[in-house]
């Protein structure tokens, strides 16, 4: 049994006014984190800036919320020496 909201994805606005699904934003965040330098991981602010450069209008708080939903630790916890 699934919640009804499972079948509908929320969306964020892009620079040109069109929408992009939160699922695709989460996969982009995951990709950025997978490709980051483990000695100097990306902060939520840096991830938000990179997404804004790609035309996805997103705030740092939303990046943090999505990162928490995906159970990805913060940048200080992802740091490897």
Total beta strand runs: 2
Shape: globular
* Low-confidence blocks of residues: none
Which superfamily, in CATH terms, is the homologous superfamily? Homeodomain-like
Task: Report the structural category.
Answer: mainly alpha
User: Do you know the CATH topology?
Assistant: Arc Repressor Mutant, subunit A
The total count of helices amounts to 4
Rounded mean pLDDT score: 87
The Rg value, from CA coordinates, equals 14 Å
Secondary-structure element string: EEHHHH
Largest sheet, order of strands side by side?
1-2
Top CATH class: Mainly Alpha
Distance between the termini: 44 Å
Major sheet description:
2 strands, antiparallel
> Level of helix content?
40-55%
How would you characterize the overall build of this protein?
- This protein has one domain (19-78): Homeodomain-like (Arc Repressor Mutant, subunit A, Orthogonal Bundle), CATH 1.10.10.
- The longest helix has 13 residues, at 22-34.
- 10% of the residues are buried.
- Helix 2 (44-53) packs across helix 3 (60-69).
- With 81 residues, the protein is mainly alpha-helical.
- The protein is globular, with a radius of gyration of 14 Å.
- 46% of the residues lie in helices and 7% in strands.
- A hairpin with a 5-residue loop joins strand 1 and strand 2.
- It is built from four helices and two strands; from the N terminus they run ββαααα.
- The protein has helices at 22-34, 44-53, 60-69, 75-78, and strands spanning 11-13, 19-21.
- It has a two-stranded antiparallel sheet with strand order 1-2.
């Amino acid at each position: 049994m699934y919640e009804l909201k499972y079948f509908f994805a929320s969306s964020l606005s892009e620079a040109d006014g069109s929408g992009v699904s939160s699922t695709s934003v989460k996969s982009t965040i995951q990709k950025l984190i997978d490709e980051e330098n483990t000695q100097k991981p990306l902060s939520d602010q840096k991830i938000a800036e990179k997404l804004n450069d790609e035309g996805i209008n997103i705030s740092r708080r939303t990046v943090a919320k999505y990162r928490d939903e995906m159970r990805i630790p913060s940048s200080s916890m992802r740091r490897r020496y």
